[in-house]
Here is the input.
Amino acid sequence: SASSIADGAIATAKLADDAVTTAKIAADAIDSTKIADDAIDSEHYVDGSIDTAHIADDNITFDKLENRYTAKSTTSSTSGTVSIDWSAGTTFEFTASLTGATTISFTNFKQGQVIGIYGLTGAQTITLDSDAATSETFNRIGTSEYDGTGSNFLQIACVDDSADAVFNYSVITYTSDTTP
Here is the structure.
Protein backbone atom coordinates (compact mmCIF):
# COMPACT_ATOMS: atom_id res chain seq x y z
CA SER A 1 0.00 0.00 0.00
CA ALA A 2 1.01 3.60 -0.43
CA SER A 3 1.47 4.06 3.30
CA SER A 4 4.18 1.33 3.46
CA ILE A 5 6.51 3.14 0.99
CA ALA A 6 8.94 5.50 2.65
CA ASP A 7 8.58 9.18 1.85
CA GLY A 8 10.03 9.88 -1.60
CA ALA A 9 10.70 6.20 -2.38
CA ILE A 10 9.07 4.37 -5.27
CA ALA A 11 8.77 0.61 -5.42
CA THR A 12 10.52 -0.96 -8.42
CA ALA A 13 7.26 -2.60 -9.51
CA LYS A 14 5.72 0.88 -9.89
CA LEU A 15 8.39 2.11 -12.38
CA ALA A 16 7.58 1.96 -16.08
CA ASP A 17 10.19 0.55 -18.45
CA ASP A 18 12.72 3.26 -19.38
CA ALA A 19 11.31 5.59 -16.71
CA VAL A 20 14.69 6.32 -15.09
CA THR A 21 16.67 8.63 -17.38
CA THR A 22 20.19 9.92 -16.93
CA ALA A 23 18.78 13.26 -15.77
CA LYS A 24 17.05 11.47 -12.88
CA ILE A 25 20.29 9.89 -11.55
CA ALA A 26 22.11 12.05 -9.04
CA ALA A 27 25.67 13.06 -9.91
CA ASP A 28 28.25 10.53 -8.66
CA ALA A 29 25.44 8.13 -7.66
CA ILE A 30 26.69 5.14 -9.70
CA ASP A 31 29.55 3.34 -7.98
CA SER A 32 31.63 0.34 -9.06
CA THR A 33 29.15 -2.12 -7.51
CA LYS A 34 26.57 -1.05 -10.12
CA ILE A 35 28.88 -1.42 -13.14
CA ALA A 36 29.16 -4.84 -14.74
CA ASP A 37 32.65 -6.33 -15.00
CA ASP A 38 34.29 -5.57 -18.37
CA ALA A 39 31.53 -3.06 -19.19
CA ILE A 40 33.68 0.05 -19.70
CA ASP A 41 35.27 0.47 -23.16
CA SER A 42 38.08 2.87 -23.98
CA GLU A 43 35.58 5.21 -25.67
CA HIS A 44 34.35 6.07 -22.17
CA TYR A 45 37.76 7.15 -20.87
CA VAL A 46 38.74 10.79 -20.95
CA ASP A 47 41.81 11.31 -23.15
CA GLY A 48 44.88 11.34 -20.94
CA SER A 49 43.06 9.76 -18.00
CA ILE A 50 45.13 6.57 -17.99
CA ASP A 51 48.33 7.26 -16.08
CA THR A 52 51.34 5.15 -15.13
CA ALA A 53 49.71 4.02 -11.88
CA HIS A 54 46.92 2.37 -13.90
CA ILE A 55 49.20 0.34 -16.18
CA ALA A 56 50.33 -2.92 -14.63
CA ASP A 57 54.07 -3.52 -14.47
CA ASP A 58 55.54 -5.31 -17.50
CA ASN A 59 52.41 -4.78 -19.61
CA ILE A 60 53.60 -2.46 -22.37
CA THR A 61 54.35 -4.82 -25.21
CA PHE A 62 56.58 -4.27 -28.24
CA ASP A 63 53.42 -4.07 -30.38
CA LYS A 64 52.18 -1.07 -28.37
CA LEU A 65 55.30 1.04 -29.00
CA GLU A 66 55.49 3.73 -31.68
CA ASN A 67 57.17 3.01 -35.01
CA ARG A 68 60.16 5.10 -33.88
CA TYR A 69 61.02 2.23 -31.52
CA THR A 70 59.99 -0.80 -33.57
CA ALA A 71 59.76 -0.28 -37.33
CA LYS A 72 62.14 -0.65 -40.22
CA SER A 73 62.08 1.72 -43.18
CA THR A 74 63.79 1.28 -46.54
CA THR A 75 64.94 3.64 -49.25
CA SER A 76 66.17 2.95 -52.74
CA SER A 77 67.56 6.47 -53.12
CA THR A 78 71.08 6.52 -54.55
CA SER A 79 72.03 10.22 -54.40
CA GLY A 80 70.82 13.69 -53.49
CA THR A 81 69.00 14.46 -50.25
CA VAL A 82 67.49 11.47 -48.48
CA SER A 83 65.10 12.30 -45.65
CA ILE A 84 65.23 10.02 -42.62
CA ASP A 85 62.12 10.52 -40.48
CA TRP A 86 63.03 9.33 -36.96
CA SER A 87 59.34 8.89 -36.09
CA ALA A 88 58.95 6.34 -38.92
CA GLY A 89 61.43 3.78 -37.68
CA THR A 90 64.40 2.74 -35.62
CA THR A 91 66.20 0.95 -38.44
CA PHE A 92 66.69 2.34 -41.95
CA GLU A 93 68.01 0.31 -44.87
CA PHE A 94 69.54 1.64 -48.05
CA THR A 95 68.66 -1.00 -50.66
CA ALA A 96 70.80 0.33 -53.51
CA SER A 97 74.40 1.43 -53.80
CA LEU A 98 75.00 5.18 -53.77
CA THR A 99 75.76 6.61 -57.21
CA GLY A 100 76.33 10.24 -56.27
CA ALA A 101 76.94 12.60 -53.36
CA THR A 102 74.25 12.03 -50.71
CA THR A 103 72.94 14.17 -47.88
CA ILE A 104 71.09 12.24 -45.18
CA SER A 105 68.69 14.73 -43.58
CA PHE A 106 67.04 13.93 -40.24
CA THR A 107 63.52 14.96 -39.19
CA ASN A 108 61.35 14.23 -36.12
CA PHE A 109 64.30 13.18 -33.94
CA LYS A 110 63.89 12.94 -30.16
CA GLN A 111 66.52 13.34 -27.45
CA GLY A 112 67.66 9.90 -26.31
CA GLN A 113 66.53 8.13 -29.48
CA VAL A 114 69.07 6.01 -31.36
CA ILE A 115 68.65 4.86 -34.95
CA GLY A 116 70.65 2.57 -37.20
CA ILE A 117 71.20 2.97 -40.93
CA TYR A 118 72.62 0.05 -42.85
CA GLY A 119 73.19 -1.04 -46.43
CA LEU A 120 75.24 2.07 -47.14
CA THR A 121 77.59 1.24 -50.03
CA GLY A 122 79.11 3.11 -52.93
CA ALA A 123 82.24 5.25 -53.05
CA GLN A 124 80.41 8.56 -52.64
CA THR A 125 80.47 11.47 -50.21
CA ILE A 126 77.84 11.35 -47.46
CA THR A 127 76.87 14.45 -45.51
CA LEU A 128 74.65 14.46 -42.40
CA ASP A 129 72.05 17.19 -41.89
CA SER A 130 68.85 17.84 -39.93
CA ASP A 131 65.89 20.17 -39.82
CA ALA A 132 66.93 21.64 -36.44
CA ALA A 133 65.61 25.20 -36.21
CA THR A 134 68.96 26.94 -35.62
CA SER A 135 71.85 24.54 -36.15
CA GLU A 136 73.04 21.01 -35.58
CA THR A 137 76.27 19.41 -34.47
CA PHE A 138 77.39 15.94 -35.53
CA ASN A 139 80.06 14.31 -33.39
CA ARG A 140 81.75 11.20 -34.76
CA ILE A 141 82.55 8.64 -32.07
CA GLY A 142 85.68 6.62 -32.73
CA THR A 143 88.02 6.77 -35.68
CA SER A 144 86.21 4.66 -38.30
CA GLU A 145 85.04 6.49 -41.38
CA TYR A 146 82.62 5.62 -44.15
CA ASP A 147 84.14 3.11 -46.57
CA GLY A 148 82.16 3.04 -49.80
CA THR A 149 83.90 -0.14 -50.99
CA GLY A 150 81.97 -2.21 -48.43
CA SER A 151 78.71 -2.29 -46.50
CA ASN A 152 78.47 0.33 -43.75
CA PHE A 153 76.38 0.61 -40.61
CA LEU A 154 75.76 4.10 -39.25
CA GLN A 155 74.44 4.42 -35.69
CA ILE A 156 73.21 7.86 -34.60
CA ALA A 157 72.09 9.02 -31.15
CA CYS A 158 70.22 12.28 -30.71
CA VAL A 159 71.67 13.75 -27.52
CA ASP A 160 69.88 17.12 -27.80
CA ASP A 161 66.72 17.75 -29.84
CA SER A 162 66.59 21.51 -29.21
CA ALA A 163 66.86 24.19 -31.90
CA ASP A 164 70.64 23.55 -31.69
CA ALA A 165 70.40 19.76 -32.10
CA VAL A 166 73.35 17.51 -31.27
CA PHE A 167 73.93 14.03 -32.66
CA ASN A 168 76.65 11.51 -31.83
CA TYR A 169 77.33 8.87 -34.46
CA SER A 170 79.61 6.01 -35.34
CA VAL A 171 80.14 4.21 -38.62
CA ILE A 172 81.66 0.83 -39.27
CA THR A 173 81.89 -1.59 -42.17
CA TYR A 174 80.40 -5.04 -41.86
CA THR A 175 80.32 -8.37 -43.66
CA SER A 176 78.00 -11.31 -43.33
CA ASP A 177 79.63 -13.87 -41.02
CA THR A 178 78.10 -16.49 -38.71
CA THR A 179 81.24 -16.85 -36.60
CA PRO A 180 82.08 -14.09 -34.12
